[in-house]
Amino acid sequence: MRPGRGGAFRVQIAFFLFIWGFTFVTAGWFAWSARWLHRYGDAWKPAVVMGIAVTSCFALLAGLLTWTFVALGRGENGERFDPVPDPIERRLLAPVLAGWSARTWATALALVAVIAWAGYCWYLQLRYGLAVTGLGRPVFWGMYIVDFDFFLGIAYGLVLLSAVLRLAGADWRRAGQRLAAMGAVFAMIVGPVNILLDLGRLDHLHKVYASGRMQSPLLWDVASIMTFLITCLVYLFLPLIPDFGLLRERVGGFRKPIYRFLSFGWTGSAAQVAALDRANRLLAILVVFVAVIVRSVVAWITSLTLQPLWHSALTGPMYVLGAIFLSAAVLALLLAAMRRAFGLSAVIRPVHFDKLGLVLVLCAVVWGYLMVSELLTVSYGNEPDEMAIIATKLSGRFSLLFWMAVGGLFAAPVALLTRKSWRTAGRVVAASLAVFVGSWAQLYTELVPVLEHPRMPLPGSGHYRPAAVEIATFAGCLAAFVLLTMILTRFVPVVAVFYERRGRGDAAAQATERSREYQAEVTHP
Amino acid sequence: MSRWGMAVDLDRCTACGACTVACAQENNVALGNPDRPDQLIRWMEILPAERGKYPEVSARLAPSPCQHCDREPPCARVCPVYATYRNVEGLIPQIYEQCIGCRYCVNACPYTCKHFNWSRPEFPAPFERGLNPDVSVRNAGVMEKCNFCYHRLQVVRDTAAQEGREPKLGEYRTACQESCPTKAIRFGDLDGELEGVRENERAFTLLEDLGLMPKVIYLKEKTS
Q1: Domains, chain A
Q2: ipTM of the assembly?
Q3: What is the reported pLDDT for A14?
């Protein structure tokens, strides 16, 4: 009998109905919004454009999933899972099969404590209002929005980076593919929490759906977060299926039926492998488009206003590049952490850090170019409103953060990683930490200095300084990100066993094949 | 259709601040926390614009409410939930119960003339008896701003309808206008009471080059 029939089969059918239902509900929501916006004589075209974009993305995802799972269900019985696991599998599955050590539990408890502290701060804010933050007039947006941009940058960048590497056929991506998708999903969960923290009336959030005005970039953001969260869940889930199939055979107890359900009848037959490969390839193309657009939407929230320095066409490209930059750093940090925690030096090799270091250097150079473009354009134009803000960044109140951004995003990667022999794991991790801090500092100096310099001379306007509540919630978000990663490593291998094993088998043959493609034999004339 | 606007004659204005106080009293504006001046709410403010450099320095002081942009108000453009919009008479209302408190509107406003309720407004014992029953007290977490004392227009219309007549010219008056001792603030229909004020040779608006066509029109000081 094929596995996956019976109760689980019905749940799977319900899951498909849900995806398709969700797609139609989304389409209906946009159509309904467009209709009432049109009736009230307001801009209805954004609703139509967004409706087409979001719905077609969901429809593609739903179609892809349905197609793939039908193919998986039809696939004939394939490989018998080897009763004796090979060393690679044993090494990669060890964290899943073994329990947590006392030290891991202690770390987890410490993280829970940080999250609880953040939760208490959120409670204080709900009780006393946003007055407990450092926000005021004219700085109405502060650290919450910076943190939101930051986490979303991690999510969008990780997906974008890993999908581009996949499409480019870079073999070394394999070790980081799972970690990238995992990190993206968790950043996508943690990031939008900051929007909830920032809202004055959390209890009125439903009005965004009930009477959303589609010409507002905030609605674009809502739609893009919704789309991307679902897209990157699928992006994480599909390559997990073969590993769920393996885990189904390897674990017992309460986890076995869960893995059986999640493996969707995976047996590893040639037809199933082909179906999954096709799905992953199509998904990689889809997520590149989605990630670039949704990252730009985040940038447009500020750049579509009339405020000096915000109102710049460069913001979108800068945010997209920043996301790739930040996510390359996060991926290097995740790889280093996993290598250390689970002894994966056989899978996560020096070459991975070398390549990621190269990505960091390239991003640093492009970042430097974009930053110089912006500074030159603004200072040559010499508009007083813009120059006042630039001055606080270069040598004023925000100079420390600004030069931290320049140091972290340009100087550190270039100084540490330019030569191949320099790109060791230790240096890449050091540069990644610098990029991590620098990215946050850059997002901060893009947002706050502009708000601190309103065009009108407002009386009683103060300087913004993040309050304890804002710092605590950021710490809580970081802790939640780490804790979620730790928990998931207990349930799935951090490097895809199936793809790693297959890569080891095929990589050499594929490389030879590829090199033969572009090196035709030269014959003497 | 009326197009409500305001003319502020800076030649008459003494920057006494009576408009600020009258506005706060009329519109149940929260008293605020003296430790956080940056979180203070004042719909009508006196903006100090410095001119020249020390020692030849002078200040131009201008009362500044919401500018009620006539063309594409940036706040209304970005509001995600229709909490603020431009109505048919050119007023830009704020619907407190619709607002979700995202503060996008004020970040998009070039005049930064909207305010956020950072905490629940408190009115200690004697003040609560002075609350205006025609105006709601805002919740914590929503934006608010000058709406040209819109509740007074409603009263004027109701009264006129009861008496079976049209509202009279100059019947709709704002609190700041009434309290101004030098009659520097005039309010009315830009095609009625204030007709021709835009053509006045002293007339200017704030940040004119952004093309938002504010309906608060300033008349600069007479030179001689």
Answers
A1: 99-250+274-506 (1.20.1630.10)
A2: 0.91
A3: 83
